[in-house]
Design a protein that fits this description.
Elements: E1 2-4, E2 12-14, E3 19-24, H1 28-31, H2 36-39, H3 45-49, H4 51-63, E4 68-73, H5 84-87, E5 99-100, E6 103-104, E7 126-130, H6 141-148, E8 152-158, H7 160-173, E9 177-186, H8 190-205, E10 209-211, H9 213-220, H10 222-231
Parallel strand pairs: 3-4, 3-8, 4-7, 8-9, 9-10
Antiparallel strand pairs: 1-2, 5-6
Bound molecules: dicarbonimidic diamide (C5J).
């Protein structure tokens, strides 16, 4: 077992052998100018700023042998998996399926739906396309996690209060111990990010834990952690 002593609201204990990293929706459509996020009127720069931190967390997880799952929020080209209520919501400059600077907005296979190149999935990593905000809805995420023997999940990605939080709550309800990497997630709304971190760890980790990437990396560092385990 490993422990992230500085996790909030209290230390997070996990077995790397049954832990996976899930990186939510680090797609060009949410992170780059000209995508869906920007079309909704958002400033995408805060999301772009976490890319190096997510890259570091990916490197740490890969180095520790954790399975990595990437998700992409996107729809079929015929929009058969996009409820009209989702497409018609709000008054975005570009709706889901509209042609934009990065192809059809939030459509599978289009450039905008791709994960940003700095965080490209490595060979063998699971990439799940999801039509909902939560990654368990209308996907085989449960099946993948069962096959991997996963019991704990480390979360990163965007946006904190929408797809990350929804998926974390879904996972929590399914019995997974969930930890959110505080500096590897971001929102277009700083207050929403802070509120999400607080509500996740409130009431004795009612949804899960949070910790910085530094602390996660320290807990997964092989030499130190193994020495600690051996010598108590
Ligand atoms: C949103 C997401 N915000 N990935 N998607 O629509 O959080």
């Amino acid at each position: 077992m490993r422990e992230i002593a500085g996790a909030q609201p209290f230390p997070f204990r996990f077995d790397p052998a049954t832990t996976a990293l899930i990186v939510i929706d680090m797609q060009r459509d949410f992170i780059e100018e000209g995508g869906f996020g920007a079309a909704l009127g958002n400033d995408v720069r805060p999301l772009r700023a976490i890319v190096p931190t997510v890259a570091r967390l990916l490197a740490v997880a890969r180095g520790a042998g954790l399975p990595v799952i990437h998700t992409r929020e996107c729809h079929r080209p015929d929009l058969s998996d996009c409820p009209p209520a989702k497409r018609e919501r709000g008054t975005p400059a570009l709706r889901i399926g509209d042609p934009g600077p990065m192809g059809l907005v939030l459509i599978a296979g289009e450039p905008g739906a791709e994960i940003v190149p700095q965080l490209a999935p490595a060979a063998g990593e699971i990439v799940l396309d999801k039509p909902g905000k939560g990654a368990f809805h209308a996907t085989d995420l449960s099946g993948h996690l069962a096959r991997l023997g996963t019991r704990s999940l480390i979360f990163a990605g965007v946006t904190t209060e929408v797809c990350v939080q929804t998926t974390m709550r879904e996972a929590n309800d399914r019995g997974f111990a969930c930890l959110l990497a505080e500096d590897a997630t971001e929102s277009y709304f700083p207050a929403f990010k802070e509120a999400t971190l607080e509500m996740i760890r409130a009431q004795g980790a009612i949804v899960g834990w949070t910790a910085t990437v530094d602390r996660i990396a320290a807990a997964l560092a092989p030499a130190e952690a193994d020495a600690e385990a051996e010598h108590g």
